[in-house]
Design a protein that fits this description.
With 341 residues, the protein is α+β, with helices and mostly antiparallel strands. It is 38% helix and 21% strand. It has nine helices and 15 strands. The chain has helices at 2-7, 74-91, 113-128, 135-145, 197-203, 210-230, 233-252, 270-284, 308-322; strands spanning 12-16, 19-23, 28-30, 35-36, 40-44, 50-57, 64-67, 96-103, 157-160, 170-174, 182-187, 290-292, 299-303, 325-329, 336-339. Strand 7, helix 2 (74-91) and strand 8 (96-103) form a beta-alpha-beta unit. Helix 2 (74-91) runs antiparallel to helix 4, helix 3 (113-128) crosses helix 4 (135-145) and helix 6 (210-230) packs antiparallel against helix 7 (233-252). The two termini are 22 Å apart. 47% of the residues are buried. Bound molecules: ligand DP6. Residues 21, 24-26, 40, 112, 114, 146-148, 197-198, 294-295 line the site of ligand DP6.
Length: 341
C-alpha cells in the first residue's frame, strides 16, 4: 500500500485556450528545437478550451493518452509521450503518465488544438511531476511540443520572442481585460487539412517572396504591438489583415519538396474567399471588421465589442449561402491549474 501511494503522484488538471496569431509564425530557424524565423504576436481565444489531466504512476509500463474520450492515433501518442519525456528529464523521474485531454471545440476547424493542448499538457505535466516552473520556462517548454503553444501560456495578448534556445518564449503584451476585442471564428466542414502547418513551415523559405516577408515583419510587429497597447483598432485590423495575406502569399508560392505535383499550398476554400470579399464590402458599408487566416480555410473576424451584434448579424446572413458555423471569443486567460497541484 505504502509503495503504491509513493509510486502514484497526485493528478493535476490544467486548462488553456488556443491562441490566434495577429502576426504569424511561419518558417523555422531550427526545426528540432522549434525555433522560429520571426517573432509573432497573438491573443488567446476565450471561446475554445482544452482541459488536460496528468498523473504520473510508476506502475504504468507506458504513457497512456485519451483524447476527447477516445484512444489517440499512434502519432498523437508519440508526440505527447515525447513531451512527457522532456518533463521527466527535468524532474529526474522515470514514471510513465496517464493523460486525459478534452477540447471544447471540434478538431480541424482552423483553431490549432496543438497550441492549447501542449500549453495545458506542459502546465499539468510539470506540476504533476512536482515541478513549479516560472512562466517563461513553461512557455519555452510548451514551445518544444508545438511552436505556437508557447503563446498560450501568458494571459491575454502575447509576443513570442525569437531567441536561440531557452530564451525563445512568449511574454505577455497585455492582459485580457486590456481590450475587449471580439473574435468571431467562421469555420466550415471540419476535415483534415491536406498540408500540415509543419510542412508549411518547412516549405516557406522556398518561396521567392519569403525574404521580402521577413524584411517587412519588423515593421509589422512594431505596428501591431503598438496598436494592441494603444487599443488602436483601425491600425491593428489593417496590419493584421495584410499580415495574414502575406502568410498565404508565401504558402501559395512555396514548393513542397515531397509533393512536386503541387505548384503551391492553397489553404483557402471558396467560402474563405467569399468571406474575404464580404469583409471588404462590410467595411465599405461602415461595419469596421477585419479578418485573419491561419493554415486552413477558417476565417477569424475581429471587431470591437460595440460591433459584435452587427457583425454576427452580417455573418449570419452570409452563412445562409455559404454554410459554416461560428465560435465567438474575447481575449482569454493563459494556462492555469484548475484541480490538484
Ligand atoms: C499558421 O505552431 O501550429 O497558425 O508546431 O506544428 O504545431 P506546430 O505548428 P504551429 O504553427 C502555427 C502556424 C500558424 C501561425 C501562428 O499560429 O503563428
Amino acid at each position: 500500500m505504502g509503495e503504491g501511494v509513493k509510486s502514484r503522484l497526485p493528478a493535476v488538471t490544467a486548462m488553456a485556450h488556443p491562441n490566434l496569431a495577429l502576426v504569424k509564425y511561419w518558417g523555422q530557424r531550427d526545426a528540432a528545437r522549434q525555433l522560429p524565423l520571426n517573432a509573432s504576436i497573438s491573443v488567446n481565444l476565450s471561446g475554445a478550451t482544452t482541459t488536460t489531466t496528468v498523473q504520473f504512476d510508476a506502475a504504468l509500463e507506458q504513457d497512456e493518452l485519451e483524447l476527447n474520450g477516445a484512444p489517440p492515433s499512434p502519432a498523437a501518442l508519440a508526440r505527447v509521450s515525447a513531451h512527457l519525456q522532456r518533463i521527466r528529464d527535468l524532474a529526474g523521474s522515470t514514471a510513465c503518465a496517464r493523460v486525459r485531454s478534452r477540447n471544447s471545440f471540434p478538431a480541424g476547424i482552423g483553431i490549432a488544438s496543438s497550441a492549447a493542448g501542449f500549453a495545458a499538457l506542459t502546465l499539468a505535466g510539470t506540476r504533476a511531476a512536482g515541478l513549479t516552473l516560472e512562466a517563461r520556462e513553461l512557455s519555452a517548454l510548451a514551445r518544444l511540443g508545438s511552436g505556437s503553444a508557447c503563446r498560450s501560456i501568458p494571459d491575454g495578448f502575447a509576443e513570442w520572442l525569437v531567441g536561440s534556445g531557452e530564451d525563445s518564449y512568449a511574454v505577455q503584451l497585455a492582459k485580457p481585460e486590456h481590450w475587449n476585442l471580439q473574435i468571431v471564428t467562421v469555420y466550415f466542414d471540419p476535415k483534415p487539412k491536406a498540408i500540415s502547418s509543419l510542412e508549411g513551415h518547412r516549405a516557406a523559405p522556398s518561396s521567392p517572396f519569403f525574404e521580402a516577408r521577413l524584411q517587412q515583419l519588423g515593421e509589422t510587429l512594431n505596428t501591431v504591438r503598438r496598436a494592441v497597447l494603444e487599443r488602436d483598432f483601425g491600425t491593428l485590423g489593417m496590419a493584421v489583415e495584410r499580415e495574414a495575406l502575406s502568410l498565404h502569399l508565401i504558402a501559395m508560392s512555396s514548393r513542397v519538396a515531397e509533393q512536386p505535383q503541387l505548384s503551391g499550398i492553397y489553404y483557402w476554400q471558396p467560402q474563405t474567399l467569399a468571406l474575404i470579399h464580404a469583409v471588404q464590402r462590410w467595411r465599405t458599408e461602415g461595419l469596421e471588421v477585419y479578418f485573419t487566416l491561419d493554415a486552413g480555410p477558417a476565417v477569424h473576424l475581429l471587431v470591437e465589442a460595440a460591433n459584435r451584434a452587427a457583425l454576427l448579424e452580417a455573418v449570419g446572413g452570409a452563412l445562409g449561402e455559404l454554410g459554416g458555423q461560428v465560435l465567438v471569443s474575447a481575449p482569454g486567460m493563459g494556462a492555469r491549474v484548475v484541480a490538484g497541484g
